[in-house]
Amino acid sequence: MEVGFIFILSGLTVWRITHLLSQEDGPFDLVIKFRKLFGQGFFGTLLDCFYCLSIWIAIPFAYFLGNTMIDMLLFWGALSGIACITEKAITKT
Q1: 80 and 54 in contact (C-beta within 8 Å)?
Q2: Is 45 left (phi over 0), alpha (psi -120 to 50) or beta?
Q3: Which of 56, 72, 76, 80 is in Cβ range 3.0-4.6 Å of 66 for a Cys bridge?
Q4: Closest CA to 80 of 70, 92, 88, 69
Q5: Residues 6+ positions from 49 with CB-CB distance below 8 Å
Q6: What is the rounded distance in angstroms from the CA atom of residue 65 to the CA atom of residue 6?
């Protein structure tokens, strides 16, 4: 597959996973139960913030996409950025 296509696909996947974990209830309310399990601690707060969570979700994708540490850092920010831009584009405010 072409690198650009994989990059866009990865960015959308980061958005999808982040949106699922921070905004949705999930099947059988499993995701909301997962969020409530963490309460108001670090992880609970992280799961409540789409933008914060997208940074963490992007890490493994950036690791597998990048060949060097610089590549990984650039992919990390860019993939989180794609997720944030996508979220802003579809969110009504």
Answers
A1: yes
A2: alpha
A3: 72
A4: 88
A5: 22
A6: 8
- CA dihedral sign of residues 68, 73, 76, 78: negative
- C-beta atoms surrounding 37 within 10 Å: 10
Both tokens of residue 25?
A: 């209830």
User: Each residue's pLDDT tens digit in the chain (93 positions)?
Assistant: 788 899 999 999 999 999 999 988 888 888 888 888 887 778 877 788 899 999 999 999 999 999 999 999 999 999 999 999 999 999 886
Give the per-residue pLDDT at 3. 82
Question: Taking the CB of residue 84, how many other CB atoms lie within 10 A of it?
Answer: 19
User: Residue 31: how many CA atoms within 13 Å on its side-chain side?
Assistant: 13
What is the identity of the amino acid at 51? Y
